Amino acid sequence: MVNPQKITNNQISDITNLIAQVLQIPEYMVTDQLSYRSIMQWDSLAHINLMLALETTYGVTIEPDTIVTLSSVAQIKAYMQGTLQPTSTHTAGIETQTDGGVVYRGLAGVTFDQSQITLIDGKQGRLQYRGYSIHDLVEQTTFEETAFLLLNGQLPTTTELDQFKHQLVAAREIPATILELIQLLKDGHPTEVLRTCLSALATFDAERLDGSVTATKARSIRLIAQMPCLIAAHHAIRQGKTPIQPNPTLDHAANFLYMLQGTIPSQQAQQIVNQILILHADHSANASTFAARVVAGTRSDWYAALTAAIAAFAGPLHGGAIEQVIAMIQAIGTPERAADYVANLQANNQPVMGFGHRVYQTEDPRARHLRKAAQALSAQSDNNYYAILEAVVQAMRPYMAKGIDVNVDFYASVIYHLLGIPYDLFVPAFIVGRTVGWLAQIQEQYANNILIRPLLAYVGPIDQPYPALSQRQ
User: Fold this and answer.
1) What's the burial of 454, exposed, middle or buried (CB within 10 Å: 0-12/13-18/19+)?
2) How far apart, in whole angstroms, are the C-alpha atoms of residue 296 and residue 291?
3) Are residues 431 and 383 in the same domain?
4) Which residue from 101, 225, 310, 443 has the fewest beta carbons nearer than 10 Å?
5) This prediction's pTM
6) From start to end of 17-136, where are the E strands?
7) For the chain, how are helix, strand and coil distributed in percent, rounded to 5?
8) Residue 457 falls within a domain, yes or no?
9) Within a 10 A sphere around the Cβ of 444, how many other Cβ atoms?
10) 449 vs 113, 212, 423, CA distance in Å?
11) C-alpha distance from residue 455 to each of 105, 121, 311, 312 (Å)
12) What is residue 377's predicted lDDT score, i.e. its pLDDT?
């Protein structure tokens, strides 16, 4: 805690200047009312940069629990004077008081419903599907078992698992008309082609509005089974090749790699992809899941909800970030350049790709499994990408101590690269795993539906006199 006698009025004035410099905004904007995330410049990375600047300038240590509560200029000043020891009553930094009430920008920290699917404990770094630890699932189960668990709420018996696998294999065939559509769209980005083809699949489901248990299970199985086949078919067609037919002897993960590359993958590759699909299967109410639930909440069909999820997921602030990690690694070039590269980004309040998460205040629990896989694959390659990642981790240590830690994208991108998957297929490959989670979330929304309709606080002009066209300037 700061000794208030050491912080003079002049130093408090200096804090205003420091905030302006760190956020790279004019000093007149730094009012006591200015709050975290109320402007684009004060995002999560800039917030950590600001805390580090305060520590360096004033010789103090601001603990992670305190960082998240210093959510306005007024709070920062009071804390530095020793007159305020903040306590968190909500997710800090997203509350803005207006005449119409409190606004929570980005809905951060807002709980909009209850769920029995996925538990995330951001403070402790815990992730569970249906009450089972992600660590147990990724180390002891297959993707098919995890998919069954997410869809049905319980792990399958041997008989149930065999039947589920058989149903997935039998549902892989893509309608010929969809293959023709892929041919027309062959030059598009794989994620855009996948999104369009998924929407088109609705026209082949005469029972797409049937919400019965039987129809729901059959539809979910088809969508899980066909998603990797759509991706692989487009990848072949854009290269002028005939799509490879699914191999009925291979499981979901192995068949995906086989259809992409034309050869039976190694046992190591099969195991790693199986683990990645489990790790990517669900992550509660992220942006894409929320988009899917909003659409499902209107009672639109499954295909519409899933298409919305993919559209949201592709954004660079969500799943699309995985492509940017590889671009960062290539820009760095060698491990020796990592520290300078990171320092330059930090100086300009630009994010280091693969770090930070809206929920986790510690390392993403999925990262340790991905790190292990990336290291194992790198040991068999002369590629220096993993070494660059580790150098970036070292450069990011001060930020990791403040809660900006490694996320799921950081190591996954290198794994995909070392497995021979093209960069523009990273997002679609992630979607192969996430599809089952979206389906479980959509199913849960339908089962206890309510229209999701938040509010916007209007802050524009009111009661303006209407001028005739001839009187307008």
Assistant:
1) exposed
2) 9
3) no
4) 101
5) 0.85
6) 95-98, 101-104, 118-121, 126-129, 132-133
7) 55, 5, 40
8) no
9) 18
10) 10, 15, 38
11) 11, 27, 23, 20
12) 93
